[in-house]
Amino acid sequence: MQTTRQSEMALEKRIRFLEFIYYFFRFQIITSYFVPRVTIGARMPPYPNLVSDSTLVQDTIDLLNDSGGRAAASAIVDAVFKLSHIDDELAGLLVADLIRNDRRFKIVDNHTVELQQDDWDNRLLKDLDFVVVDVEATGAKTPPNRLIELGAYRIRGGRIVDKFLQLVNPEIPIPRFVATLTGITNEMVKRQPVFAEVAPKWLDFVSDSVLVAHNAPFDTSFLNHEISRVYPGHRMLNPHLCTVRLSRRVLPDIPNHRLDTIADYFSIPIASRHRAGSDALATAEIFLFLLTKLEEDHGVKDLVTARTFQFPEIKPAAPSDQTELSLIPSL
After folding, report:
1. Catalytic: 274?
2. Residue ranges of domains in the chain, CATH in brackets
3. Is pTM, for the whole model, over 0.90?
4. 248-306: per-residue pLDDT in tens?
5. What single-letter DSSP state applies at residue 175?
6. Which of 225, 234, 240, 274 is catalytic?
7. What are the strands, taking DSSP E only, across the chain?
8. Residues 6+ apart with CB under 8 A from 310
9. Taking CA 127 as the corner, what is the angle to CA 123 and CA 129, rounded to the nearest 5 degrees?
């Protein structure tokens, strides 16, 4: 009887292992087959600000949070992949592949995984680098729309120290409405690099900075959509601040919190409205004013407080602000 039971357990273990191998390779084949053609041949470099967007990885993070930030690889395989009785060495190899190049994890003695805490939130605003970004696109939603221009300015030590300006070939036609609004035509972008060529330079430029944008959910979601086309299943890890939300708290009495209105309030000119570089520069200059007011008027000195400060108690948005906080470009 004992021999029979042992044989059954061994068979069950082998079946579970084969099920996992089937799932793992099926997942690899599907993601490889369906990635956009622009990603073919793209290799996954170890960008520290690029992390997996996989639900399996998020499940692993949830497990580690529930386990005090540390768990055995075999426990992760059991909970995340629903596979029991996996050898510790094999479990370590599988988990190592799952979290490869992800700065949020550290593998200890090949069999244990620890969750690493980023120190962004605990740092003072004055000690952080910020990258203030604006994007122009062929339309408001992804997919099917694509980026046509990317503009960004780096803030360090209370001043603008660097910039990133790039037209992008969207590989699809620019609608007439967008061309009229932005002044960016199909002729202007047809010889420009596609985003797959821009992405490595962009990720290097951003590095571990905090992203800032006027209507940040739109800009960051569009950027992550483009990045996921180049590096499937990945997104930027960088935290972000939204100047629409911050200005609502800091400047509650102005008529609305659109970019033009706030720029006028601070006497900031916008050279070419609806061009990424000009809008990003105006947003960067606005953000510098907001940083001063955050500290002097509200005592906000660190990132975690600033991120919380953006979200007061829920109140109905003013009609003139509604479009700025939906997933459409800032107007």
Report:
1. yes
2. 2-24+39-115 (no CATH), 125-325 (3.30.420.10)
3. no
4. 999 999 999 999 999 999 999 999 999 999 999 999 999 999 999 999 999 999 999 99
5. P
6. 274
7. 50-52, 70-72, 105-108, 112-115, 130-137, 147-156, 159-167, 210-213, 234-236, 240-242
8. 241, 242, 245, 246, 249
9. 100
